[in-house]
ABC-2 type transport system ATP-binding protein
Amino acid sequence: MTQTPEASPVPPPVSGPVPALRTWGLFKRFGAKVAVQQFELAIPAGSFYGIVGPNGAGKTTTLSMATGLLRPDAGTAFVNGVDVWAEPEKVKPMLGILPDGLRLFDRLTGAELITYAGLLRGMDPVVVRQRTDQLLDVLGLADDGTKLVADYSAGMTKKIGLATALVHAPSVLVLDEPFEAVDPVSAGHIRAILADYVAGGGTVILSSHVMELVERLCSHVAVMNDGALVAAGTIAEVGGGDLQARFAQLVGAQERTEGLAWLRPSRG
Ligand SMILES: Nc1ncnc2c1ncn2[C@@H]1O[C@H](COP(=O)(O)OP(=O)(O)OP(=O)(O)O)[C@@H](O)[C@H]1O
């Protein structure tokens, strides 16, 4: 069984510019299951970074530890050089997070939820009001702003979660499966918003299962398998022209030719 590693008290310095996000020795165990082991990655500022991996690879656990949502057993993360776990109050204003599966305050309306997120960040109420209207509009929720989040569909919930991550214009966005359940038109709008944000100097880190999307949208990609980082770099470095094929190779996916022989429409 993998032992929890002894954390060295001081992570080694990085050469060059300060990464937007750096993880160092991240480790998490749930009972006997090691969900994430020795995860170390430096994400350059201004990059559009995709994190991919099969179901259960450890993406959500890693992103949760890297953003202050889940305490690591060992290791830590730095946002713009500031330790997420040692100085959370300094890190939170720099971060916009769309967690996967974390419950929102769904007895608020969509507009109230964005407003709440903005005011919680100490923003000017007039600015919050303007941005709330703009975000609802651009995310196709203008007619649903007065509806309770509890009554939103899965895709609408994803979009309102994204709006709460964007409202304070953070320098680093960490989005767990931002396109899941989102319709193609809204997904197009979200892609445009994120591309524009990166063009303006922001950093986006997103997890996804959709390889074509990562290949088209991202500048860099990290591949996780079974709790470990197995490859990281630019899309060209990792994918070599076919990210899907390289991914299958890295995670050891085998083609399955046999089907479920019993799965036939029953007659009668
Ligand atoms: N709270 C928890 N309690 C117990 N096991 C957990 C918990 N959270 C995650 N795990 C386990 O840790 C491993 C990594 O899970 P994680 O959700 O990080 O994977 P993932 O790559 O995000 O998967 P997916 O692509 O399916 O969302 C899995 O084996 C999962 O069962």
